[in-house]
């Protein structure tokens, strides 16, 4: 099996490679968001507009089943368009992507106030995570990871290059946007601040803001997480390619102690 999804007519069947961190029988968030962004990208290319914001609401757990994707235009303007993509399991909506597209200009102003940063170390110079960390999910086993800062198995900020090595949809090449979106879902894991033997953490949504299109296969995630009150948290990440940063990511986090979770179930 060499793809996360296979086609069944107008449906997309999740393979076992789509299995996620908390259950091998449930979709990895990366698979859910990347399947929806394929439709966003198709509509953006057709309109000549640029993808500027993607907000994914992940409403229900999604099993390894066949899904339908529906699109709709919420606002059609000369300078900005808002579209939505719905992911459906039969008649049940599993998640939704709301995307902002904007018209492309001929030039951009120089930013004299931006901080000058050194070039990030290339993925070829990074180190892979420990074997046990790479086995956290079936999906993750098909993602190449090269750490240049921090560690996945230890709490704290980190920076890691990632590349999905199998097709998101059978017979299709993964575009840079698909690579970026599937990588973005790992932001909370890269910047996790808790011992996963004691806590679970989920993000019921994720938003990406683009200031240029991504390029290439490798995506660098530099992320950090802050814990707040009553189980709330926020993960913030910068996405880069070999040319430098291209997007910012925000994830609203929910933390729960495993002991409390076991007592509730």
Task: Please provide a written account of the structure.
β5 (80-89) and β6 (92-102) form a beta hairpin. The chain contains five helices and 14 strands. It is globular. Strands 1, 2, 3, 4, 5, 6, 7, 8, 9, 10, 11, 12, 13 and 14 form a 14-stranded mixed β-sheet that branches. The chain has helices at residues 29-47, 131-134, 176-184, 187-190, 258-264, and strands at residues 3-8, 11-14, 50-58, 66-76, 80-89, 92-102, 143-149, 158-164, 167-169, 199-202, 205-210, 219-227, 232-241, 244-257. With 265 residues, the protein is an alpha+beta fold. Helix content is 16%, strand content 42%.
DSSP strand content:
35-45%
Gyration radius from CA atoms, angstroms: 18 Å
User: What share of residues is helical?
Assistant: 10-25%
Element order, helices and strands? Answer: EEHEEEEHEEEHHEEEEEH
Given the C-alpha coordinates, what overall shape results? globular
List segments where confidence is low: pLDDT < 50 over at least 5 consecutive residues. none
Distance between the termini: 34 Å
Largest sheet: 14 strands, mixed
Helix count? 5
Query: Which class do the helix and strand fractions yield?
Result: alpha+beta
Count every beta strand, where a strand is a DSSP E run of 2 or more residues. Answer: 14
Overall average residue pLDDT: 90
């Amino acid at each position: 099996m060499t793809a996360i999804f296979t086609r069944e007519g107008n449906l997309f069947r999740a393979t076992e490679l789509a299995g996620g961190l908390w259950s091998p029988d449930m979709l990895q968030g990366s698979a859910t968001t990347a399947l929806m962004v394929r439709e966003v990208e198709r509509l953006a290319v057709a309109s000549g507009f640029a993808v500027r914001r993607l907000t994914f609401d992940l409403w229900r757990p999604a099993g390894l089943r066949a899904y339908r994707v529906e699109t709709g235009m919420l606002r059609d303007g000369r300078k900005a368009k808002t579209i939505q993509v719905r992911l459906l399991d039969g008649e049940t909506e599993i998640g939704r992507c709301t995307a902002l597209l904007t018209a492309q200009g001929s030039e951009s102003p120089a930013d004299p106030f931006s901080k000058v940063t050194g070039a990030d170390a290339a993925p070829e110079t990074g180190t892979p995570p420990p074997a046990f960390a790479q086995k956290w999910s079936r999906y993750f086993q098909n993602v190449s990871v090269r750490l240049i800062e921090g560690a996945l198995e230890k709490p704290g900020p980190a920076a890691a290059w990632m590349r999905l090595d199998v097709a998101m949809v059978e017979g299709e090449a993964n575009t840079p946007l698909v690579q970026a979106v599937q990588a973005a879902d790992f932001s909370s894991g890269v910047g996790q601040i808790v011992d996963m033997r004691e806590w679970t953490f989920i993000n019921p949504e994720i938003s990406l803001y683009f200031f240029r299109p991504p390029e290439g296969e490798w995506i660098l995630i530099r992320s950090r997480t802050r814990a707040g009150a009553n189980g709330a948290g926020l993960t913030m990440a910068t996405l880069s390619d070999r040319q430098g940063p291209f997007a910012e990511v925000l994830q609203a986090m929910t933390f729960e102690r495993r002991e409390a979770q076991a007592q509730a179930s």
